[in-house]
Amino acid sequence: IECSGEQRLVAASICSPSYWNIKSKIGKSLREIHKPVKTLNEKIGNPIEKFISNAPQDKPFLRENWFIHGDDHRMHLKAEGFPKGMVKDWVVRSERETLYKFDESYSLFAINVRFQRLSDIFQFDAAKEGLQISLERMDADEIEYFGGDKKIKTIHKYITS
After folding, report:
1. How far apart are alpha carbons 63 and 65 in whole angstroms?
2. What is the pLDDT of residues 2-14, one digit of tens each?
3. Which residues are paired to 113 by β-bridges?
4. How many CB atoms lie within 10 A of CB 125?
5. In what order do the strands lie in the sheet with 61-69?
6. In terms of Cα–Cα distance, which of 141, 89, 152, 84 is closest to 115?
7. 3-class secondary structure, 155
8. In a 10 Å sphere around its CB, with 0-12 CB exposed, 13-18 middle and 19+ buried, how is residue 13 labelled?
9. pLDDT tens across 55-70, in order?
10. Where are the alpha helices (DSSP H) in 34-148?
11. What are the residue ranges of helices labelled H in 55-148?
12. Contact between 124 and 110 (Cβ < 8 Å)
């Protein structure tokens, strides 16, 4: 990722995408990449741009991201629709994202993907509560990108029952 200017994605190797295809993202700015979730740029656009341009060199930064799929397949190039199977068998896909500025002009962005059955959340009260809060705070654009209102309501009902 370029650290200045448009902060374009100039090179990438994506082994486990969740609802996107590298062919449609390479060479685009981070703002363009995040465009499918309309409110995402409003929420993280300026802060992430400032962070990337001002990040200290040779110091990695970590953040976690998550998604819920109907399976543990590593490759989802496009939205899967409403997941098949029972909600207890759906899978939480956790993405450990690392940003590392290795040069004044460029940063490396890496994602390590891990999977856990959604039903395992009942072993961890804080995780269950965190997921519930996240679902309740999603705006309409996030809900649509995440899989739609039916999916969100199904997950919410499952974890609060």
Report:
1. 7
2. 998 889 999 988 7
3. 95
4. 9
5. 61-69, 91-101, 107-117
6. 89
7. helix
8. exposed
9. 999 999 998 888 899 9
10. 38-40, 46-54, 125-137, 140-146
11. 125-137, 140-146
12. no
Which tokens sit at 47? 């802060």
Print burial letters for 88-121: b (CB count within 10 Å at least 16), e (below 16). eebbbbeeeeebbbeeeeebeeeeebeebebbeb
User: Could you tell me the pLDDT band of residue 74, with boundaries at 50, 70 and 90?
Assistant: confident
For a pLDDT cut of 90, what percent of the chain falls above it?
48
* Amino acid making up residue 33: I
pTM exceeds 0.90 for this model: no
The helix/strand/coil state of 107 is strand
SS3 105: coil
